[in-house]
Amino acid sequence: MAIERRSGLLPYLFSAVAEDANKPAPLVVFLHGARDRGNDLDVLLKWGLPRFVHESSPLPYFFLAPQLPEGQTWVERESDVIALLDNFIASRPIDPSRVILSGFSLGTAGAWHIAASHPGRFAGLVAVSGRVPKTLDISQLTALKEIPIQIFQGGKDEKLTVEDTQQIVDTLRAAGGKVNFTLLPEGDHFIADEVYTELKLQQWFVSQSRRQASVVV
Length: 217
What we know:
Layout: E1 4-6, E2 12-15, E3 25-31, H1 48-55, E4 62-66, H2 78-91, E5 94-104, H3 106-117, E6 124-128, H4 138-141, E7 149-154, H5 162-174, E8 179-184, H6 192-196, H7 199-207
Parallel strand pairs: 3-4, 3-5, 5-6, 6-7, 7-8
Antiparallel strand pairs: 1-2, 2-4
């Protein structure tokens, strides 16, 4: 699939949907990890979800992947991510009730923070190899109970423990959340290729819908 590159407040990659351009389609927003920060959007295409989208036939969803400058975090750029999302929805036939937010590592921390700060905006959250940031307390975390969540972690990840992730899963489930936790026993921190190429996850991206989505355009 052809991926376009755009500059702006946050430079980004995006790709159009395969289906009828006039029919509202889902949007998958991807937040990259720490090592992909900088000013070269092509580094995002080397692996994980951006590479999958780039190398695939046209997909049934729009794709958006902003890039952070060196030294910054997604938590710091929360308002810019939301502004970019608003602009994207306003300018393309995107179904605002079918927006999925996904992150890898540093991007997962950002995804947790942004989704918890704007729980009415997202139909699903995908967290890969990342922890919940310290900026979130339990009450903010449980605001995500209405959002279906997919969590993926490698059993040999040296950057975070399975026990810490399981505690988050248990907290969300106790609050009534819909959480699916997939542990890849032999996986390390860098499991993004394996996770994002899984057909079940790709189908999940387009099967989620939040009909009461609150959208600012």
